[in-house]
Design brief:
There is one protein chain. This protein is 33% helix and 14% strand. The protein has one domain: NADH Oxidase (3-Layer(aba) Sandwich), CATH 3.40.109. With 170 residues, the chain is α+β, with helices and mostly antiparallel strands. The relative contact order is 0.23. The radius of gyration is 17 Å and the shape is globular.
């Protein structure tokens, strides 16, 4: 699958098959994250891969009781140990982690898997379930697996509504 096809095909899956993810596929997907760019080339992201069924249910409960998350054979918990700020005033950690997680989402799509970005969770509960140290920021959760639902896409704005050239013209 080429990049543009993966971009068009990616969607937020909320129902996963119990079919396990092949280790080779997961390794390629995690390699895509490792290759993501990062500010100052810090690469301070860290990923906890949760595959144990009981622990996946605990993570889902800590994610605002979104129990569909636990139906995925794996949950990727994106973390960072970076507290640096870019000159523009933005924190590095969430931006770098978002880039790496989107590499994961697109690589998963190319491998025939689906994902879902999860930002609704209680970090302190996730921290307890996964023994994540206090100094580590928990930024994102992403269930990953084979879909049990049909691919769905929400309407997306035309490019003309989100892009202008040379100066602000909205």
């Amino acid at each position: 699958m080429d990049l543009y096809e993966a971009i068009k095909k990616r969607y937020s899956c909320r129902s996963y098959s119990s079919k396990p993810i092949e280790k080779e596929k997961l390794d390629r997907i995690l390699e895509a994250a490792r290759l993501a760019p990062s500010a100052k080339n810090l690469r301070d992201w860290r990923f906890v891969i949760v595959t144990d069924e009981k622990r996946r249910k605990e993570v889902a409960a800590a994610a605002n009781e979104q129990m569909f998350i636990a139906t995925a054979p794996a949950i990727i918990v994106g973390c960072s140990n970076c507290d640096s700020i870019m000159r523009c005033g933005q924190k590095i950690a969430p931006i770098d982690l978002a880039i790496a997680m989107e590499h994961i989402a697109l690589a998963a799509t190319a491998e025939g898997l689906t994902t879902c970005w999860i930002g609704s969770f209680y970090p302190e509960k996730i921290r307890k379930v996964l023994d994540i140290p206090e100094k580590i920021e928990i930024i994102e959760l992403m269930p990953i697996g084979y879909p049990a639902d049909k691919e769905t896409h929400r309407p997306i704005e035309n490019v003309e509504k989100i892009v202008c050239y040379e100066k602000w013209q909205f």
